[in-house]
Amino acid sequence: MAGATVVVPRNFRLLEELEKGEKGIGDGTVSYGMDENDDMLMRNWTGTIIGPSNTVHDGRIYTLKIFCDISYPDKAPQVKFCSRVNMSCVASNGVVDPRHFHLLGHWNRSYTLETVLVELRKEMASPQNRKLPQPPEGTMF
User: Where is the UBC core domain (predicted)?
Assistant: First the structure.
């Protein structure tokens, strides 16, 4: 059937993402993996972002928790910084606000956990975030 779209089941999709995350992705500035190896529903993930050069985030390592509920990838994951960060799209409790972070607010099934982390890193380097004063390094939410 030409033009038919195959919808990959949730667990297969997450297994693909896990394999990619474990192998290391891109230039190594973002990474992710399972929070708990026995999470059979693959809901809880941990992500890491190394702050972009020539910004106030330069050299900092940020950790995040990512929750993929049962409707992922049709519905965006919930993303929360564990490391304190001052960014226009991050609420005072560390949650990435979909109303202020376009990728989560306009979620597309083709986006991945990698996409979320890469776009958050780009957001750190954006004009509105690159020079914002930051909490002391190593402080957590």
Answer: 9-141
- From 29, 31, 46, select the one nearest 82 (Cα to Cα): 46
In terms of DSSP H, where are the helices of the chain?
10-23, 102-105, 113-124
pTM: 0.92
**Tokens representing residue 101 in the block:** 């972070």
The DSSP letter of residue 63 is E
Phi and psi (nearest 5°) for 60? Answer: -80, 150
pLDDT in tens, 19-67: 988 887 777 899 999 999 889 999 999 999 999 999 999 999 999 999 9
Question: How would you label 27-50 residue by residue, b for 16+ Cβ within 10 Å and e otherwise?
Answer: eeebbbebeeeeeeebbebbbbbb
Closest to 12 (Cα-Cα) out of 75, 103, 73, 77: 73
Which two structure tokens, joined as six digits, stand for 91? 């609420």
Amino acid identity, position 104:
L
